[in-house]
Here is the input.
Amino acid sequence: MFEEAQYFAPVSTTEDGGVVVELSQSHPGFADPVYRARRNAIAGLAVNHRRGEPIPEAEYTEQEHEVWASVTRELAVKHRKYAAAEYLAGAERLGLPEERIPQLQEVSELLEPLTGFRYLPAAGLVPLRDFYGVLADGYFHSTQYIRHHSVPFYTPEPDVIHEVIGHANALASDRFARLYRSAGAAARRVESDEALEFVSKVFWFTLEFGVLREDNELKAYGAGILSSYGEIEEFRGMDIRPLDLAAMGTTHYDITKYQDVLFAAESLDHLEDVVGGFWDSCDDESIARIS
Ligand SMILES: [Fe+2]
Here is the structure.
């Protein structure tokens, strides 16, 4: 089983059509029935959403908007120091609200005129083939809930802060958006589950946890690093390896901890050449040869 399955809370549908998100006992919101009811309601919005329809509004509390505002404020400071220039330019173009959680429909409407990308609501884990495949069409699956307000700088699962601050700011860049589309086209092209997993691991070590060199400094462009208050301070001290498709596509990673092995591109051009070039042309045979 692909590891990503473990960090999304399982979502199930009851006989009467209700949607239930099964938070683990260690989740900060586990013992908060009001939060859990909201999580179920938000998951229900995604389960009942049909592509092409507007994304329904999620209800958030004042405390949750404050979580967004404080994380946005703190991350903005860190981004100035640690984020790749192309990501910062994307954030500037997109202009996300700073004081309240944007609705996914609103994110979609900000993004579409820039790079054609639109958001789709996801209740939890989306099967790999769907998640990556629709990137080729300019769709990005996104969770809509926010982390529990008791621990604003921690989340055990990808929440709207990760999906929007991490990914939408990158998707607002033409160059990153092209890479996301290439990853999607690759996922569509490959047939075996092994090849799909290889494509998705290369995505993990680049668009989720990638770093690159800029003026002799290591900068992050991966959404996982850029949306994590703790990890963004740590990535420069990790085991930094050169960009290597075979290694990225086969290295095991643990999603529950900070990523201790990272792959650095020498520049954005280098990333586009190596990783974009790979996604643009890979197939089952070429992946089998290098894995
Ligand atoms: Fe992500």
Notes: Strands lie at 11-13, 19-21, 118-121, 139-142, 211-214, 217-220, 239-242, 261-265. The radius of gyration is 18 Å. Confidence is low (pLDDT under 50) at residues 1-5. The domain at 3-290 is CATH 1.10.800.10 (Phenylalanine Hydroxylase).
